[in-house]
Amino acid sequence: MKYDPAQKTTRGAVRTLKAFSETMLIMLGEKPFEKISVNALCEAADYPRATFYNYFDDKYDLLTYCWYRMRREVHLDQISGDPTDASFMAAFDQIYHLFDSHHDLLIAVVSHNPLDSQLVNHFIQYFTSVFTELFTARAKPQELKTPVELVAKHYSSTVLLIMEWIFLGQHPTTREEAEVYVRELLEPRFTCVE
C-alpha cells in the first residue's frame, strides 16, 4: 500500500483518504470492480487524478486501503492474547460485527461482483493475511505439532467461510449461533479408525 498508516496524517489527508475509500465502496455496490476506473473514482470523489496518485498506486491499492480501514474499524490489531482462547472469539465477534454492520453494502457488492471475482479474491487474500499475521504473532508454537502458519490459515479460512455463509449466502444467524459454528468447526471431530 502506497499510503503509510504509520505516518502522521493531516486532517486534509484524512478527509481525502476517507472520500476515496467511501467512493470506492459506493461504486462497488453499483458496478463490478473491473469496470471502475480511476477517472470515475476521482470524478465521484471530486478530487483530481493527481491527488489520487499522491495516495494510491492504482485502484487495487485503494482497495487495500478500504480493507485496512475495515480492519481498523473493528480494532483487530488491538486484540491481545492467544487466539485459540477468548481473544480469538473476541476477534471473531469483531469480524461478525463488521460484516453485520455492512450487510446491505456486502449484498450490493456481491450482486455486482461474484464470489469468484478479483474483488472478492482480493478481500479474502487481505483478511487471510491479517488473520494469519495476528494468529502467528500470538500462537505458542511449542504447543503445536502443526506449523503455526498452517494453523493460522486454517483459522482464517474457517472465519471467512462462516462469514460468507451467513452474510453472503443469506443464512440469518445470530452472533451466538455463529460462535457455536466456529467452535464446532475448529474442534477436532474425527478420529482415525484402526
UniProtKB/TrEMBL annotation:
Residue span, HTH tetR-type domain: 14-74
DNA-binding region: 37-56
Domain of life, per lineage: Bacteria
Keyword DNA-binding (UniProt): yes
The entry's keywords: DNA-binding
PANTHER family named in the record: ACREF/ENVCD OPERON REPRESSOR-RELATED (PTHR43479), TETR-FAMILY TRANSCRIPTIONAL REGULATOR (PTHR43479:SF7)
Name of the protein described by the UniProt record: TetR/AcrR family transcriptional regulator
